[in-house]
Amino acid sequence: MQSMNSRRDKVKMTLEKYTGDRDRMEIPFTTNLLEWEHFNVDFWSTERKFSEVQHIADQYPEETIDLRPYMIEAPFKVHTTDRLPKVLDYFRMFHLRALPVIDPNDGKPQAVITRQDLFAYMSL
Questions:
Q1: How many CB atoms lie under 10 A from the CB of residue 7?
Q2: Which domains does the chain have, with CATH numbers?
C-alpha cells in the first residue's frame, strides 16, 4: 500500500509541475483568471482557429489568460555580446526555432533570433 501512495504522490507532483497549479498556490496574481483548459481542444493540443480564441476572449473580457502551462521555465538564451558561432551551435544542438537575445547589463530582452533570420543571413 505504501508504494501505491508514493506513486500517487509522484503523479500529483508531476501534474502540479506541468499544469501550473503549484505556481498558482505560490504566486496568486489575480482572481480573474481564465483557465488554460478553455484553450485546449483535445489531448493532443490541437490548435484552435483564431475565431474560436477571439470568441473566448470576447466572452471573458475582464479575465487574464494563464499561459504558465505553456511557458518554458528556463529557456535557452544568448546575450547581445555573444558571437554568431555560439548562436548557430545552440540552434543546431537543441533544434531551436527561436532564441531570445538578452542584454547582459540589465537582463532585459532585446530581440528574438529565428531560424528564418539565420537562413536569410547565411548563404546556403
A1: 10
A2: 2-70 (no CATH), 78-121 (3.90.1280.20)
pLDDT at residue 93 above 90?
yes
Residue of 52, 53, 114, 119 whose CA lies nearest to 78? 114
CA distance 111 to 51: 29
Question: What is the C-alpha to C-alpha distance for residues 106 and 103, in angstroms, rounded to an integer?
Answer: 6
DSSP, res 32 = -
pLDDT in tens, 3-29: 556 766 776 666 666 555 555 555 555
In the DSSP assignment, the letter for residue 47 is P
Q: Is pTM, for the whole model, over 0.85?
A: no
Please say whether the beta carbons of 101 and 80 come within 8 A: yes
Q: Say how many residues make up the chain.
A: 124
